[in-house]
Specification:
- The structure is a single chain.
- The chain is α+β, with helices and mostly antiparallel strands.
- The protein is about 35% helix and about 25% strand.
- The chain contains 26 helices and 39 strands.
- The protein has a 7-stranded mixed β-sheet with strand order 4-7-2-1-10-13-12. A 5-stranded mixed β-sheet has the order 15-16-17-19-18, covered by helices on one side.
- Strand 22 and strand 23 form a beta hairpin.
- Helix 13 runs parallel beside helix 15.
Amino acid sequence: MYNTYIKNSFSSWFINTWENTFLHPDNTGPDTTSHRLPSLAIPIHYNLYIKPYLNISDNNLRYSIFEGEVNITIKIIQTTDRIVLHKRFIFVRYPITLSMPGISVIRTIFDDERDFFTIIFNQTLSINTEFTINILYIGELRNDTYGFYLSSYVRSTDKVRRYLVASQMEPISARRALPCFDEPALKATYKIIVEHEQQYRAWTNMPIESTQNQSNGWTKTQFEKSVPMSSYLLALVVADFECLTQNNTGRYKNITTNVCAQSEKKNDLYYALEVATKNMEDFEQQFQVNYPISKVDHIAVPDFDAGAMENFGCILYRETRLFYNNRTSTSINKQEVALVIAHELAHQWFGDLVSPSWWDDLWLNEGFAKWMEFVYTDKICPEWDLYEQFIANRWLAVMQNDAISFSHPVNMKIIHNEQLTSIFDAITYSKGSSLLRMMRNIMGSNTFNSGISKYLSGHIYSTATQNDLWQVLGEQMFEDNIQLPSNTSLADIMSTWTDQMGYPYVEIIRDYCQNLIKISQKQFLFDSEAQPSKSPHNYIWSIPLKIKSSSSLETDLIWFSKPNMNITISIQSNEWILANPDLLGFFRTNYDGENWRKIIQQLKTDHKKFSVVERAGLIDDALNLARPNILPASLVLELLEYSHLEDSYIVWERILSGLQYIEQMIASSSSGLYLYERFRSYMVDLILPIYNKLGWKDNSSTDRWLDTLHRDMIISTACRYDLDHCIQRAQELFEQWFNSPSNNTIEANQRRVVYCTSIRLGDRARFQFLLREYQASSDPQEKARIQTALTCTRDIELIRYLLHIHINSEQNVIRRQDVLGGIRSICRNLIAETECWTFVHARWTQLFRDYGGSLSFAELIKDVTGRFNTLLQLEEFERFSEQTTDKGAAEAEFKASIERSRGNSQWVSKSKPNLEEWFLNRTLAIRLPLDWFPSTYQLHFNVFLQSTYPTNEEPNTTFTGHTRIRIRCTRPTNELRIHMKQLRLSYAILTRLGKNNNLISDWTIVISSEVLLCRLRERCIKDEEYEFESAYTAELDREMAGFYLSRYNVTNTTTGKIITHNIGATHMQVN
């Protein structure tokens, strides 16, 4: 309610009273399109006073506002009569004053599209002129989690709502807190005073210098002068939080580490404090560049759009990223806390001490921080195998994001503000960090680390571009005698990876007679018909290549920088080769069919001949090469036949991730339920061995860390595919809690799958129970688990209800920070596809207005359309895209989703027949699945034979049969498989006992598997009795198998006959 009040009354009053005299449309100046500030002046120092009003009252005019005053020391760098600042949702109080006598402001101009605030003077100022400008203003404390914003929480002890203010300035929201030069290269120092009510505390980037209590119940907290920093790193928090403190941290024991949150959550901060203090010392030691501030704060904020924010000296987090509770937090929660803290502390060097010159080079911030979070958390927790996890969760995962023609380069040219939020994505973070790993692979860790230290020390308190990084690392390689191809610099090589989008797939074709290998490279795209935009390198990459063979031969590093080349390698024709051992380079690899078969055979014989990383890479390459039909899907499924031997978490993670795409395409296509059910049955068979091995129970004495993560993933998969034991166990645990709500004994690592499974298969009473638990819980990690579990429902009415409570803030059920994530989770539910698309289509204007600035907004479109694979869906989405003018940061994702949908459609049309054939001929094994259990057979045969016949004549050997089989459904399926051989079926009927309607929609006899496959109109009901009836004709067998004809001589001229049977082994199915 207070946002509407501010917008309709307070904001309008200030604009009319203070600004109308001064503001004019900005239609002057040489460039009215660039979103970069003109190079007229630079800031040197800010003196900032800020006073937020948190005594919220509907009767108070100062509802959701803050007062501010800023004195900016400015240096003129180009002769001018004006300066241009940024401001947004800030109302300036006039007059604006200057420190220079005789100089005054005669006019201001505000460009609300670019947030430009132009101040025009009565005189022209010369180069190197320095002066101070004073601006009084009032700003809105909005609740949208950008800039300086309002948040709140309810303490569980007294149920009273408490208010606080926090900040999120990156990328361009410092302008919401103060008029400023809001670009990363324009660093300055800050001296800050925060005035606040005495029951609160204040935090900014620097330590407190002094506090002064006022007689009116307010306090002025003054902070030390800051180090030079970019505006997007400014932090401001006013709250009633409490902190855990560790003094004497860092390499020289001169840094105080504080971890802060709501007072009742204080005990959940000890693990964060432990991790933060260890990381700080490791980073200083490794980088050989000291942290320049005497404290670092880590503060958990109830409403925070990003996961965390690396403000210099004052890092802000989502609560889920800082809290760890031994009883209610999962292993994943613990790992995320450690990784995120390491990420943000790495930013104190990569991003804070050394910042990007412009947002083009954001990847230097995020790529380094992402890579360093794995490197330095591994130092603290080596048992977590984080290098392997990096391969699965970052390196291989981001390749899927980068396989569309509307991806973007790591070094992306930013022209408009709307582009900014779209680059805080997996390409910038995960691909950026993957390229750093590739560079480290090329030059070695010692050279890489030495070069990075020089890069940091050479640009401290300044800015850098990727060319600065190439220069320093190239010099270090030269110093360490690391060779590159002649006449080639590191910049020449790496620019092919950072300045063009995508990545290559390398095709290896062997000439087995001449030991010749033909190598080619081509951009890998899911949509083979897509036309990517022009590239500065024509989509040719400088690829670091090594080849190893089954005899352990490994070549030296080969640089492959052209479309094709041939190499000769001395290996035997019966050996396999691997062209990217341990994933040296960021590319996919395809081989000729014979080499793939040799790799498959090696996996079946001794899969550990390949490292874990290599196995994950092989499987991920194969599964993704099948999407644009470079590989047949049947070969990929053949590759996975060894999986019953596989026990690696990261390999299974890539198996399940890749197969999920096949499932989505089958489930969303017009193939019918029979192919989907066959796939689901295949998945149960696939995971059953590893499910049985891992079990449900964590064992701290024998489990490795990855066993715990692996168990969670496999159990979730098993329950999702309705494995009986998994379903039974999950529902049993949930029912114990349901019947005793005050005593939740479900282990934290099991709650996600237990909650989701019980909601998916449960009734509305259980849904309402879990929703009440969500509303009552004060544990942010538990709330996140429950919110996701609620989206597992298969009830369309409940799906509509969930969408409603997410989008309607007056319901006050879902925190704003969790809205987009919740909607995205709903949209990933296969059942909700149509409902979710209808919802987003109808509510786009509201979604864009309220969440268009969110870093994850574009991902919503991806989740809504990710399974689209029909021409009808594609046409409908294209129409929506054409009609939607407001896309903001989602503009590129609209184009990407159209391309992705087109690629999906191609996959379904080309791969579905191949899959159907594979499933019919390979998954229908001799043994039938355990979906049905027979109890009684009724058999009737009609055979027409003469008792004797002339010896020189052949008897009539045809017979007819009629069969009724009473069977019980042991697990829900929409297939019935019965063995049958050499029978000509007249009809087949399946009825539920007491019902008359035939459940069989069609049937197929699979000759190779000797199976009658009946496809059902609906899934059978577990433990219900059914009757199968069939009629058929057949020939009496002559080979003494099944129902067969035998003969004996009666006389010299006549032969007698006897009909008997041999139903040993598999002969009963013959007739």
